[in-house]
């Protein structure tokens, strides 16, 4: 979605709009497009909700496997 502030994206959990920015959403880096453009895909859930969502889903799991998106952010 486009606003006067730039691109914004609605989080599918909190339903809030956040700037389409790696600061607010986890990103997945896809292979570059044929024209050499960077091809990034943003997660549908904002970072804050992502944490809550995945913690709730896997309560008390010792082997906490991080998603690819999280690994990319941590790197
Ligand atoms: Zn959210």
In short:
With 75 residues, the chain is an alpha+beta fold.
What does this structure look like?
The chain has 75 residues and is α+β, with helices and mostly antiparallel strands. It has a single domain (2-68), classed as Wheat Germ Agglutinin (Isolectin 2), domain 1 (2-Layer Sandwich). It contains two helices and five strands. The strands form two sheets. The protein has a three-stranded antiparallel beta sheet with strand order 1-2-3, with no helix packed on it. A two-stranded antiparallel sheet has the order 4-5. Strand 2 and strand 3 (17-19) form a beta hairpin. It is flat, with a radius of gyration of 14 Å. It starts with a strand and ends with a helix. The protein binds zinc ion (ZN). Zinc ion (ZN) binds next to strand 5 and helix 1.
- Number of DSSP strands? 5
Proportion in helices: 10-25%
Radius of gyration: 14 Å
Indicate how many domains the architecture comprises. 1
N→C terminal distance = 29 Å
Q: Which architecture does the CATH hierarchy give at level 2?
A: 2-Layer Sandwich
């Amino acid at each position: 979605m486009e606003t006067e502030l730039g691109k914004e994206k609605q989080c599918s959990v909190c339903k809030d709009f956040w700037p389409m920015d790696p600061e607010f959403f986890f990103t997945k880096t896809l292979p570059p497009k044929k024209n050499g453009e960077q091809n990034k895909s943003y997660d549908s859930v904002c970072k804050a909700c992502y944490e809550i969502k995945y913690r709730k889903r896997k309560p008390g799991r010792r082997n906490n496997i991080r998603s690819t998106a999280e690994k990319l952010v941590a790197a």
